[in-house]
Design goal:
The complex is a heterodimer of chains A (173) and B (240).
Chain A: H1 7-18, E1 37-43, E2 55-60, E3 68-71, E4 76-79, E5 87-95, E6 101-115, E7 124-134, E8 145-151, E9 155-156, E10 162-169
Parallel strand pairs in A: 1-10
Antiparallel strand pairs in A: 1-4, 2-3, 2-5, 5-6, 6-7, 7-9, 8-10
Chain B: H1 2-28, H2 40-49, E1 54-62, H3 64-71, E2 74-85, E3 89-103, E4 110-113, E5 117-126, E6 136-159, E7 164-191, E8 194-208, E9 218-219, E10 223-224, E11 228-239
Antiparallel strand pairs in B: 1-2, 1-11, 2-3, 3-4, 3-5, 4-6, 5-6, 6-7, 7-8, 8-11, 9-10
Classes of the chains: A mainly beta (173), B alpha+beta (240).
Chain lengths: 173, 240
């Protein structure tokens, strides 16, 4: 009653089995692996998005290079978040063609979490924004000043979705 | 691309199964087997003679997993125990140990499992009517679970703005996963109580835990961590 496979039959079975060795190797990494905090600029009175025609430079305490350098005509922009600090001190330097210049400070508290997607993909650092504070300054001349700041999405990751809203006001407001 | 490779893989498996069964059929066609019944009474007798209840047990080991572990970055060592109910239903418990030691040359990331046991429970159904032949065409379902630990390491995370360097080193991270598995395969007797068989599996992840820095790259008994994966097994079965 016991059956014995012929060599040819055994070969077919073995061949079919070892086809499983041919594995698919695919790399499925996110296309955008840049982690930046997206900031939107808004008018303090109307709460509508505004285009800033002043020149804006953003520096950070401890950073060796500007986070944003002489940006003009921006409605929103991305800022990096530090990998090790608990609080980033961001210096928003406004200036215009008339020679006026002023600086507002934003204190951004956050947590940092290394992120792993796959061994095929580069690693990165994600952040959770926990608290924000800012200095108050009266607007001078035509320069705007920061009125308030709000966190609208606390997770800073690969998504280019607005994280904070910076509300600006003029001297007339 | 993924679908086409998977499709090609299954086509090859199905083709081989189509080839394998006629080969057996040719050898069997020369034999005179069984009793020919011609009446309803005879049919009743035949049904009464059909195997019922627990017919025995079988233990098996998978040979493909260790080969994969030897030649690729991951694989598993596993064995199974199954019950034979009326030569039709085969409740099965599969248990084993997954191994993964993967280093990517481009990213320098290294993933390695530590404690990686897994278990699957389920049942197969034999679709062949000639249950006494020793051949089986099996379809079944499994529920799999693994709780495991792994190490993950890579290059430091360098912050280009604040000029800091953060180590990317995680040891003994814990994770677990639950998945459902569809199985289809064939099995045939080769020598006395020894059977050989292979099966293809489609595994669908139901749940898994993620923690910093992310999800595990490999799940023992499941494979590369994804929503769904295909896999195969080649079993040596000892019928008890």
């Amino acid at each position: 009653m016991f059956h014995i496979l012929k060599p040819k039959q055994l070969l077919v079975v073995l061949l079919a089995s070892f086809l499983g060795l041919s594995s698919c190797t695919e790399v499925e990494c996110p296309l955008d692996t840049v982690v930046v905090m997206t900031c939107g600029l808004y008018d303090a009175s109307s709460h509508s998005q505004l285009t800033l025609y002043d020149t804006l430079t953003v520096n950070a305490v401890g950073a060796t290079v500007p986070l944003l350098n002489r940006a003009v005509g921006k409605q929103s922009f991305g800022l990096p978040v530090s990998y090790q600090n608990d609080v980033d001190t961001l210096l928003f330097c406004f200036s215009n063609a008339a020679g006026d210049a002023a600086t507002d400070t934003i204190f951004l508290a956050h947590t940092n979490a290394p992120h792993f997607e796959s061994v095929d993909c580069p690693t990165s650092m994600f952040h959770q924004l926990t608290r924000v504070a800012w200095t108050r300054r009266e607007p001078t001349g035509q320069l705007r000043a920061i009125d308030s700041v709000a966190i609208v999405r606390s997770t800073v990751d690969y998504e280019d979705i607005e994280n904070i809203r910076v509300f600006l006001r003029t001297a007339a407001q | 691309m993924k679908i086409s490779k998977t499709f090609a893989f299954f086509c090859a498996l199905l083709l081989s199964s189509v080839l394998a069964f006629p080969l057996r059929a040719q050898t069997d066609s020369t034999r005179v087997r069984g009793i020919q019944y011609s009446s309803a009474e005879a049919e009743r007798l035949r049904l009464e003679a059909a195997p019922r209840g627990v017919q025995g047990f079988a233990v098996s080991v998978d040979l493909l997993g260790p080969v994969l572990a030897a030649v690729s970055s991951y694989g598993q060592y596993e064995a199974a125990v199954r019950m034979n109910i009326a030569q039709r239903f085969f409740p099965t418990i599969e248990a084993g140990w997954g191994v993964c030691n993967k280093t990517d040359d481009n990213t320098d990331l290294h993933f390695k499992t530590k404690a990686a046991p897994f278990i699957r429970v389920g049942c197969d159904y034999n679709f062949l009517n000639d249950v006494r032949s020793g051949h089986k065409l099996l379809g079944g379902l499994r529920l799999g679970y693994s709780t495991f630990k792994y190490d993950l390491s890579g290059k430091n995370l360098d912050d280009p703005y604040w000029n800091t360097s953060t180590p990317f080193q995680f040891e003994s991270k814990s994770s677990n996963a639950l998945w459902l598995e569809l199985a289809a395969g064939v099995e045939t007797a080769v020598w006395k109580r020894v059977h050989l068989g292979w099966s293809v599996r489609y595994r669908r992840r139901i749940s898994h835990t993620t923690s910093t820095p992310g999800q595990a790259w490999y799940i023992p008994g499941f494979g590369k961590n994804d929503i769904g994966v295909f896999s195969g097994m080649f079993n040596v079965v000892l019928v008890i």
